[in-house]
């Protein structure tokens, strides 16, 4: 056993912030907040995620879907089936990017308390099954059903629409709360935290 025993091995596998160093796993679970982060989170309202509970925030989703559908219908040579599928894919990609990919907030008023959380995890203080989260989960499902119906249940369009739906619904599930998929070519945890990997 190397000099220093298990303590030396342990100190080499955990960074200063308590986060695990590089691993062969592509799944990473975000650790719970510290007491300092929790107190920073409750000090001020989270302007990044509170807008989803405001009037009109739910209305923008059907309006955007209708706008996308009209946009794709105006492109010459695009069939109705392709138009519905493109509308579905565009909406799913935009909502995944907005709610599940981007982490942190654009404002710096809470000492970085939300830096490691995406918008879905910030909404309603992380509570599950709130009205906003139920609505935002039902919209992709409704759009999937519409696009599947109007593509006349064609197998190719069905597979594409199903994959788009799964890529948005799976991160919304409570069992995937605070879970990240880390690709091997992406930044390591230490690079994100500003530390040099060893």
Automatic annotation (TrEMBL):
Subcellular location per UniProt equals: Membrane
Q: How does it sit in the membrane?
A: Multi-pass membrane protein
Q: What is its main location?
A: membrane
Q: Where is this region: Disordered?
A: 1-23
Q: Which UniProt keywords apply?
A: Membrane, Transmembrane, Transmembrane helix
Offer a single GO CC term for the protein. endoplasmic reticulum membrane
This protein is called Protein ORM1
This chain's source organism reads: Drechslerella stenobrocha 248
Q: What is the lineage of its organism?
A: Eukaryota, Fungi, Dikarya, Ascomycota, Pezizomycotina
